[in-house]
Amino acid sequence: MSDDAQLDSTVNSILTQLKDTTTLSKKVEKLPEADLSKENLENFVIKYASRLIVDATESVEYIKDNVQVAPTAEDVVSLAELIKSTSSALEVLNKIVANNKKADTSLTIKKMDIENKREELDIKVNNNLIASREEMMNQLFKKAKIVEGSVIDIT
Asked: Most C-beta atoms within 10 A of its C-beta, which of 29, 84, 93, 151?
C-alpha cells in the first residue's frame, strides 16, 4: 500500500505544480503603453531590447535544459531561433552604443577643431597688434620733433 500512497503523493504533487504553472501563466504582466516619439525612441529600444535579451537568455537556459533531457526536433529548432533572435537584439544594442560613441567622438573632434582655429586666430591678431604697435612707435620716434622748453619757476 505504501507504493500506492507514494504514487498518489507524486501525482498530487505534479498536479499541484501544473495548476500553479497555469495560474502563473494567466498572470502575465501587461506592459504600459510606450511613448514612441522621436525623443523617446532610443530609450524605448534600449529598455525593451535589454529586457528582451534578459528574458530570452533565461528562456534559452530553460529550453536548453529541456533539450538536453529529451531532445525533440521542435525544441532544438526553437532553441536555435531563440538564440538567433537574442543575438540580433544584442547586435541592435551594440549598434546603438557604437553610434553614440561615434557621435560623441565627432562632437569632441569638432570642439577641438574650433578651439584650435580660435587659438590660431588669436595668435594672428596678437602678432598683427604687436607689429602695428612697434611700427607706430618707430614712426612716432622718427617724426618726433624735439621741443625745447624753458622751465618757469612760480615760487
From this structure: 93
- Write b or e for each residue in 104-139: b if 16 or more Cβ atoms lie within 10 A of its Cβ, otherwise e: eeeeeeeeeeeeeeeeeeeeeeeeeeeeeeeeeeee
d(CA 12, CA 37): 51
| Contact assessment for residue 75 and residue 49, using Cβ atoms and an 8 Å cutoff | no
In this structure, the number of other CB atoms found within 10 A of the CB of residue 103 comes to 10
Pick the closest to residue 139 from 131, 147, 149 (CA basis). 131
Q: What's the rounded Cα separation, in Å, for the pair 28 and 21? A: 12
**End-to-end CA distance of the chain, in Å?**
142
Radius of gyration of the chain (CA): 40
Dist CA 92 CA 86 (whole Å): 10
- pTM, two decimal places: 0.50
pLDDT in tens, 100-138: 899 999 999 999 999 999 988 888 777 666 667 777 788
